[in-house]
């Protein structure tokens, strides 16, 4: 249940209502909005008389909700959340571009790619140190050593870093990582979600291969229920009957997530298509659809990449794409004036 308060609601009256509800066993989550303040109730509200609460002079309206996700729900949090990743902002009109190699391979590869990405306009450096691979014989990443190389690139370029954590045991290595990535295969690893929820660190939550919107938001709810509300959603393509592309990028997820949730949503066109030539059109479609950011794989020499080379852009290709992304965003802003 959501209780929307009037703008002139007296603090003493609101405190009295909160105390009465808490005595009945409800958990209250107050939210201060730009125009309204809200009290979000968690618990079995079936016994509450919504009309009686709505009759209070300082209450604007009472809304019952059915969705099982409360903290991620826009009804509880009308204003867009803005997530700060080491100084790079995502959401609420702030656009972020995460770029870098699929996996960390060598110091030269990471640093050269990081410098090129920053020069082109990227705001966050992405790179994998622990890699979930379909085949056990594929390159699994450099582990802690890979994170150290990302940290060196961060010191050299100033870019905050995001990298994937696959297991609770790996969290000890992520102290200097600015944002934790939960991959598609771990979207419903609830034990891992709870643990990252206990940290004061932004989390990038990728959508599972076959996850529904509600399942995706419930995964975010697991993180947020533990106290960490710094969650960014990432659509990376879902598994459909189509075999021409690696996955199917669900652009519909952008307006739908903005409608259902206050959390930012970014798009990963690299994993969606699995082909570098598809990254540009999918990126521009995502920007046009209202995404809060992009996650793009960039490698200084994709032909020699140890992981996902066919979907990675060269630095010059990324630079060209960024010019178009910036131009498109500016054009969209002009159209809304």
UniProtKB/TrEMBL annotation:
Residues 1-67 form the DAHP synthase ferredoxin-like domain. It comes from the Bacteria. One of its GO terms (biological process) is aromatic amino acid family biosynthetic process. Keywords: Transferase. Its EC number is 2.5.1.54. Gene3D superfamilies: Aldolase class I, Phospho-2-dehydro-3-deoxyheptonate aldolase, domain 1. The keyword Transferase applies. Signal peptide: none annotated. This is 3-deoxy-7-phosphoheptulonate synthase. It holds the Pfam family DAHP_synth_1. PANTHER family: PHOSPHO-2-DEHYDRO-3-DEOXYHEPTONATE ALDOLASE. GO terms for molecular function: 3-deoxy-7-phosphoheptulonate synthase activity; aldehyde-lyase activity. Residues 87-326 form the DAHP synthetase I/KDSA domain. The gene is aroF. The keyword Transferase applies.
